[in-house]
Write a structure and sequence with these properties.
Blueprint lengths: L6 E4 L7 E9 L4 E2 L2 E2 L3 E8 L5 E5 L3 E3 L2
Antiparallel strand pairs: 1-2, 1-7, 2-5, 3-4, 5-6
Length: 65
């Protein structure tokens, strides 16, 4: 499970490590037969190499030890 303060790397750019600053939930605008879809979890991360801040879905991040 990814939490604030963890070191992570995006799946499609594993060479860049980042620190998780914040995790928040975003309501889904997709409706299914039984109701709305579950809320998505979005992580705000800060890359270590150049201090860039970006947002990624938590499912697109991998924890780095």
């Amino acid at each position: 499970m990814i939490r604030e303060g963890n070191t992570v790397a995006p799946f499609f750019n594993m060479g860049r490590h980042a620190i998780v600053i914040e995790i928040r939930e975003v309501k889904s605008s997709t409706w299914m037969v039984g109701g709305s879809a579950a809320p998505a979890r979005i992580a705000k991360i800060k890359f270590v190499d150049n201090d860039e801040i970006a947002e990624y879905p938590v499912g697109d991040l991998m924890k780095v030890d």
